[in-house]
Amino acid sequence: MKPPARLLLALSLLCVHAGAQSPELRTFTNAQGKAIQARLVGINGPNVTIQMANGQQYTFAIATLSSADQEYLKTAAVAPKPAAGPATGALNEAAGQPLFSDTMLWESSAEEVAKRLNLPPESKTKTSTSYRAYTKDDYQLFGAHPYSVAMYAENDKVTGFSLVYANKGDLFSASGGGEMHFDRDTPPAKAAQIVKTAMDKDVTAIAATLTKVLGEPKKERFGEKAGRMNMQRWDWRGHAILLAEAEGEYVGVQIVTTAFADAGGKVESVTDTIIRSRALANVEKREGGDVVIGDIPMVDQGPKGYCAPATAERAMRYLGIPADMYILANAGQTGFGGGTNPDMMLNGMASQIRSKRRSFDSWQGELKIKEIAKYIDKGLPIMWTLCSTKNFNETANKRTQERKSVTNWAEWKTKVTEAAAANSLPKDKDTRHIVLIIGYNKDTNEMAFSDSWGEDFKERWITLQEAEQVSDGRFYAIGF
Fold first, then answer.
1. CATH number of 5-75
2. Which of 31, 35, 182, 455 is deepest in the core (most CB within 10 A)?
3. Pick from 148, 184, 139: which is nearest to 335 by CA?
4. β-bridge mates for residue 132, sequence order
C-alpha cells in the first residue's frame, strides 16, 4: 500500500531530530524507504504511535511501514517507561510549580500543561505552538525567579521548555511592552556587576535545588555552533533538565527529552524540498491584490529591546532552524536592556543558518515593491531595520484598522496615495527597530510588516512612500 503524502511529510519532518543515540530508539522505515529513528509508544489495532527524540509523536497505519517493521510490530512490546526516581510530587515541590505529572511531558497535551502552569499562548501555526509568560517578581521555579517561561509544542505535544533567569535584557527592561519598549530607563553605571551578582545567585540556587532532589549533575556540552554551551544536566523519567550560564549574558534552564540531550542538542536540517513547499503553501493571495505570508511563528520580545533577536528567531524557526532570542542576543552582543547590532548577530549565526542548508542574504538600499515581491512570492519574509517612531506606529495602526473595511480598492488606492504624499514621518535614532516584511500590494504601493510584540502586532500595513521616510535601509533574508 502506498503511504499517503501526509505520512511521507510527517516522516520527513520527524527526521529533523533523528540521530539521538538511546536504547529506546530504533529505526523505522516506510514503504518508500524513508528511515527515521523513533521510540515505539503504542499499538492500537491497525495503528502505531511513535515518538521522536524531541518528544514529537505521530500516529499512522502500520500498513504504511516496511514489511520488516510490520513483522517487528506483531511481537513488539511497548518500550518500558523510564526508571522511577524521585516521586512526581517531590520534584514539583522542589520546582515550586505543578510542572510534571505521572505522564511524561512529551506524551502530554501542550494545551493542558499550559493551563496547569498558567502560560498564555504566544504563537500558533499549522503544526507548532508556543506559550510564554513574563512572570511577576514573586514567581519561583527551581528555587529562583525566571523572567521568561516558554513552552514549545508540535501537534499539541510538548517538545521542550526554555526558562530564562537573570539576564542583561530583562534586568534592565522597559516600563512596558510593544511600542512602549522604547521608553526604557538608562541602565545604571554598574550594570555589569549587577548582572553578575544576580546570575551567580540564580545559578547557585537552581543547582542546589535540583541537586537536593535529583543528585549531582553531569557536565555536558549542548547546542549547536554559536549556541553551543557547557551545561549541568539532571535526568528524571525521560526528561533532561539542563542548566546553562552564558557569562555576563543570562542564566537558562532547558527541559528536553533525554534522547535529545544524549544527542547534544544537535538538530538535523529539513530538506529544501520540504521547506520550499511549506513556504509556498503559506503565501496568501487576497482580494484587492494583497500578497501575504501566513503561519509565521510569533515571538514576544517582552518589555525589553530584543526586537532583533526576537525577529531573527521568528525567521529562523519559520524556515526550520532552531533558535532562541536569548542565545541570539548573546551572539549579537546586545546591550543592557536591549539594543542589538543586527549585522553582528546575524553574521554570527550565518554558519548555523548555512549548516541547515539555508542561504542568508543582506543588502542596503531603498524599499522597492519588486525587491520585496521577489522574496514574498517564495514565502520568505524579509528583516527590515527602521525607526519605529510614535507617528509611524500611529499611522500604521490607523491604516491597518481602516483596511479591514475596504470594499472599493480603487478608492483606497487614491486615499492612501494622497495621505502618504501629505504625511511627514521624521526619523528618531532612539527608536531603531527591526521587523519582518511579510507582504505587499503592487496596486496600492503598500507593504505589510510584523513586529515581535505579540499577536496584536502580527500584521500591519503602511505605504512604501511612508515606510521609506523611517527606513534605516538595511535588509536581511534567510532563503533556500
1. 2.30.30.700
2. 182
3. 184
4. 150
Vertex 470: Cα angle to 466 and 475 (nearest 5) = 105
Q: Are strands 359-364 and 291-293 parallel, antiparallel or unpaired?
A: unpaired
Q: Where are the beta strands (DSSP E) in 18-95?
A: 26-29, 35-44, 47-51, 57-61
Where in the sequence of the chain do the CATH 3.90.70.10 domains occur? 272-479
**Which pTM was predicted?**
0.72
Q: What is the 3-state secondary structure (H, E, C) of 134-200?
A: ECCCCCCECCECCCEEEEEEECCEEEEEEEEEEECCHHHCCCCCHHHHHCCCCCCCCHHHHHHHHHH
Residue-wise pLDDT tens digits, 7-46: 333 333 333 333 333 346 788 888 777 778 887 877 767 7
Do 132 and 114 touch, CB atoms closer than 8 A? Answer: no
pLDDT in tens, 309-359: 889 889 988 988 777 887 777 655 555 555 556 666 666 666 667 666 678
Query: What is the rounded distance in angstroms from the CA atom of residue 367 to the CA atom of residue 421?
Result: 16
Cβ atoms of 248 and 193 closer than 8 Å: no
Yes or no: say if 276 and 287 are a contact pair by the CB < 8 Å rule. no
Calculate mean pLDDT across residues 156-161.
Answer: 92
Angstrom CA distances, 345 to 307, 330, 333, 341, stand at: 12, 8, 7, 6
* DSSP class of 45: T
pLDDT for 168 equals 80
Strand partners, 33: none
- Cell numbers given for 172: 534592565
How do residues 199-208 score in pLDDT, each as one tens digit?
Answer: 999 999 999 9
Q: How far apart are CA 342 and CA 347, in angstroms?
A: 8
Nearest to 432 by CA among 466, 379, 386: 386
- From CA 159, how far away is CA 244, in angstroms rounded? 19
Domain with CATH 2.30.30.700 in the chain: 5-75
Question: Which fold, 272-479?
Answer: Cathepsin B; Chain A (3.90.70)
Going by C-beta distance under 8 Å and a sequence separation of 6 or more, which residues neighbour residue 308? 328, 329, 332, 334, 340, 341, 342, 345, 434
